[in-house]
Specification:
The chain has about 150 residues and is of the alpha+beta class. The chain has two domains: about 35 residues; about 100 residues, no CATH class. The chain is built from one helix and eight strands. Keywords: Membrane, Transmembrane, Transmembrane helix.
Length: about 150
């Protein structure tokens, strides 16, 4: 029975060390990919300010003190910047280090590309949807029919 008990304790120690090592590697990977504070950027044509494939709107998403903030440079022009704040406080363990990414697709069926903010927490993913009104994005409401 003693060898069995020692073996089980050894397996428990390996499990704990492995879990900690995996969490450390995931954190290191996010630091390398998104920086600190967590920042993500992309270009996308969303129909604002005559943007086109040659001068798409540029988006920067950042986790700023547990708040997801998105900056849009309309048609790639920094002078025409607009900011959007997700109505979600990023709570929980690791909330200050959660990456924020963006996805663009029509979720309302109106043929306009909408913005989906993804907040990647260790235990879950939070979403915030912004509706495209043709000139800017607005936060979604209960009246919006959203098909994710």
């Amino acid at each position: 029975m003693l060898p069995l008990g020692v073996g089980m304790l050894a397996m428990l120690a390996i499990w704990i060390v492995g879990s900690l090592g995996l969490a450390w590697f995931h954190q290191l990977s996010d630091d390398y990919t998104y920086g600190n504070p967590r920042t993500y950027q992309t270009d996308y044509v969303v129909g604002h300010g005559n943007d086109a494939t040659t001068h798409a709107s540029h988006f920067v998403a950042i986790n700023l003190n547990r708040q997801a903030v998105v900056f849009e440079m309309v048609a790639g022009d920094p002078a025409k910047s607009v900011s959007y704040v997700a109505p979600i406080y990023i709570a929980g363990d690791g909330g200050d280090k959660a990456p924020v990414t963006l996805e663009f697709r029509d979720v309302t069926g109106d043929k306009k590309v909408d913005m989906i903010i993804h907040i990647h927490l260790p235990s879950q993913e939070q979403l915030s949807v912004f509706i495209n009104d043709g000139s800017k994005f607005r936060p979604s409401t209960n009246k919006d029919k959203i098909d994710l």
